[in-house]
Design brief:
The chain is of the alpha/beta class. The protein is about 30% helix and about 20% strand.
């Protein structure tokens, strides 16, 4: 079933407005609503690479990552694999394809790894703007113009490791969905992996799986 953009905006408006009015200093991680990504299953959704890694977690897991870019790239691969298992491989545009598109369209295309999204990192702004500021708005608009049907953009903003009871931590990914043409944030939330007692490869796979669960169950 095709979902029109205004219907998507209406569906997500309550969650976005609630997040936008929450003070950052008191802000708890906003958990993603169950199956929130299902509204985009038949739409062209541009998936950007994960941009940032937050340091200084209580167990020092981030400090164990010697190559930040390589680790975030491996998370992107896990996310693509998990999403593809939900049947959107031919509909959504993933980071590898975006990189190829950017190279073909130099110097006009923005760097898919270089969106100006620092201000959205945890804990984020006190209020989300009604209109995205430049240069992020211009970057997303150009990206969408170069990708046919690419009005909607999914940005994994930042990976962080967060303590949970029992001396464990979980991996948490903050992500946002943008309407690039209207220069609006239409949804932003955090999704977490299963808790773990030690740092390891299973964290990225668990996080990607929980993110893909917002789309729906895996295909049989």
């Amino acid at each position: 079933m095709s979902v029109k953009i205004p219907a998507i905006l209406a569906t997500l408006a309550v969650a976005a407005s609630t997040l936008a009015t929450t003070p950052a200093r008191a802000q708890a991680p906003a958990a993603a609503h169950q199956h929130v990504l299902a509204a985009f299953a038949t739409r062209r959704l541009i998936i950007l690479p994960t941009h940032y890694l937050r340091m200084d977690d209580s167990l020092g897991w981030a400090n164990q990552i010697s190559d930040h870019d390589a680790y975030l790239s491996s998370l992107d691969s896990e996310i693509e694999f998990a999403f593809s298992d939900r049947g959107v491989k031919k509909v959504w545009v993933f980071p590898e394809a975006l990189d190829a598109m950017a190279k073909r369209n130099q110097p006009y295309a923005p760097d898919p790894h270089g969106m100006a999204a620092q201000w959205l990192r945890y804990p984020g702004p006190k209020r989300l703007p009604e209109q995205l500021p430049d240069p992020l708005a211009s970057q997303l608009r150009t990206l969408a113009a170069l990708q046919e049907g690419g009005q909607l953009v999914f940005l994994p903003i930042e990976l962080r490791f967060q303590p949970v009871p029992g001396g464990k931590e979980c991996a948490v990914l903050r992500f946002a969905i943008f309407d690039a043409v209207r220069a609006k944030i239409i949804y932003m939330a955090d999704v977490a992996s299963d808790p773990a007692a030690s740092f390891g490869p299973a964290l990225a796979a668990s996080l990607a799986g929980h993110l893909a669960d917002q789309l729906g169950p895996p295909n049989e």
